[in-house]
Amino acid sequence: MILYPKRESRILQPNGDLRMETMTCPNCGSEMAYDSTAALYRCRKCGNRVDKAYESLEEAQARLSAKGKRPHIHLTHNGEIEPRAQTLFEMAQDSLWRKDTAEAKRQLTKALEMQRNFSDAHLWLAKLADDEPTKRHHLGEILAHDPGHLEALRMIMVLNGRLSPEQLADTRRESSVVPKMVDSPVETISESQLCPVCGGTLSVDEAAGVVLCKFCGHQAALQSVSTLQNRADNLSMALLERRAKPVRWKIGSRMLRCRQCGAARTIPARKLAQMCPFCGSMHVVLQDALETITEPDGLVLFTISEDQAMSEVREKLTGFNERITNLFGGDNRVANASIEGVYLPFWIFDALLKVNVTLWDESAKWGDQRSLQAGKTGYQQFNYQDGATGLAVPAFKSPDPKLALELGEFALVDMLPYEPKLLASHPAEIYEVDFDAASLEARSLVTHRAREAAEAQYGDRNTRVSATAFPLQMTFQLALLPVWVITLFERDGDQRPALVHGQTGRVVLGKARKSA
Fold first, then answer.
1. Which residues of 246-267 are buried (b: 16+ CB within 10 A; e: fewer)?
2. What is the 3-state secondary structure (H, E, C) of 362-419?
3. Residues 353, 358, 361, 364, Cα dihedral to 10°
4. Mean pLDDT for all residues in the chain
């Protein structure tokens, strides 16, 4: 009878790692090492030797039959796979099914020699690696080729401590996060914007870009602009982190207690910075009891003053279109106006795109056999990578987000790292539109712009262009941007909203409506 060596018993861990069971020395209790040449176990402490167990052919056949067929492994690689590399990958999965980790690693490494960017080979080498540097190396190689690779993102988030191993399983569940509404006001932690020297009220000198005390002249230092570079978050990682949290709290109002005068009042959930009506001190909400507030990443200061904003509005109202409206629309002249400078929240997205382009030469002779034989089919296909940066999506519901988008772009190069003391002069809003909802709008906008750019670049009167674009990777930040919010009270009793860009002075007028 032919005897076959029985394989060592190994256990497949939940995370996909393989662990070999060790043999304990029956003489001294120490761990024994296996000598593959002599096919026996040796104890390094006492020298005891134990022969390796053998099984018969019938036992081996029964064991393999009970094990069954290897399950299919879904490939995650984005793009074409070199056939020899895929064959080696499948061989490696067979080796893992036989619990031969060393051979699987060798085959996966060989697959990478055939195709360096083969994501699935990198992924399994990361799963099988015993040390963190090796795991990070292979995961980094995957994300360099495919920034949106979900499994690699999950694993790197665990290594970075952003997800726990328990939360990792939650990111794969199908059910969505459950929203829960809080009816009563939620307690908050706030900060009064007072001078640390004299206790006076701080203000912001937008022209000089400093925070100062108008009573004693104290100036507060600001953070370096370079620190903004580390505040952008990966959208895919943020969405995975969101999925790992089973509950999303919805706050209706918050309880704010003034640290200056002790007054307590309820404020709307959308308010981030607001002046105390009793003592006049500016209070900035830092966090609430349910930890629902995401601190802004940056802030762009006002460069247009209140007087300049109102001057721009008056000039807009005397324009030709407004005169025509007044001529035929009744008495729409402005009797009074209210104005407030507010820092409104915007989600700022940067995107890396893949654009697929198909060109049709409409002048080509489709029935010309000579042209077809020469390879002139009348159309061509290609793809390229493109990018979009600084795309601002409103994170508020009031004022009208569509009106705010008409203000145009902000000079984000002037954005400062967020600090509560920057809100000493103007109130600010907390985002009402979350980043996941805003990302859908951002995706739509960047893909639409990429298609338009491709059609403009490659299209002409003889060439028809079809372009599709989809994001490979998106990052985002939460920014507070300066906007003058104005309400115009007309003589006929109507109210009309207006917005003024806090950097450029551009004016956008809304439609008049009857006052409540």
1. eeeeebebbebebebeeeeeeb
2. CCCCCCCHHHHHCCCCCEEEEEEEEEEEEEEEECCCCCCHHHHHCCCCCCHHHCEECC
3. 160
4. 82
Structural tokens at position 296: 């802004």
- Domain residue extents for the chain: 1-68, 73-161, 179-295, 306-514
The candidate with the shortest Cα–Cα distance to 89, out of 117, 111, 61, 59, is 111
Instruction: Give the alpha-carbon dihedral of 151, 156, 162, 165, to 10 degrees.
Output: 60
52, 82 contact by CB (below 8 A):
no
Of the candidates 229, 230, 234, 231, the one whose C-alpha atom is nearest the C-alpha of residue 157 is 234
> What tens digit of pLDDT does each residue of 204-259 get?
887 777 888 888 888 877 776 655 556 778 888 888 877 777 677 888 888 888 87
The encoded tokens of residue 51 equal: 């022969």
Give the whole-angstrom CA distance, residue 485 versus residue 470. 35
- Architecture category of domain 73-161 in CATH: Alpha Horseshoe (1.25)
Q: Which residues pair with 416 in a beta bridge?
A: 299
| pLDDT the model gives residue 404 | 95
Residue 212, helix vs strand vs coil: strand
pLDDT at 7: 40
pLDDT 10s digits, 171-182 = 766 655 677 888
Q: What's the predicted TM-score (pTM) here?
A: 0.73
DSSP assigned state of 197: T
For the chain, the maximum distance between any two Cα atoms, rounded to a whole number of angstroms, is 109
Question: Rounded to the nearest 5°, which phi and psi values hold at 200?
Answer: -75, 170
Contact assessment for residue 123 and residue 76, using Cβ atoms and an 8 Å cutoff: yes
Among candidates 508, 484, 486, which has minimal Cα distance to 334?
Answer: 486
pLDDT in tens, 85-98: 999 999 999 889 88
What is the rounded CA–CA span in Å between residue 309 and residue 311? 5
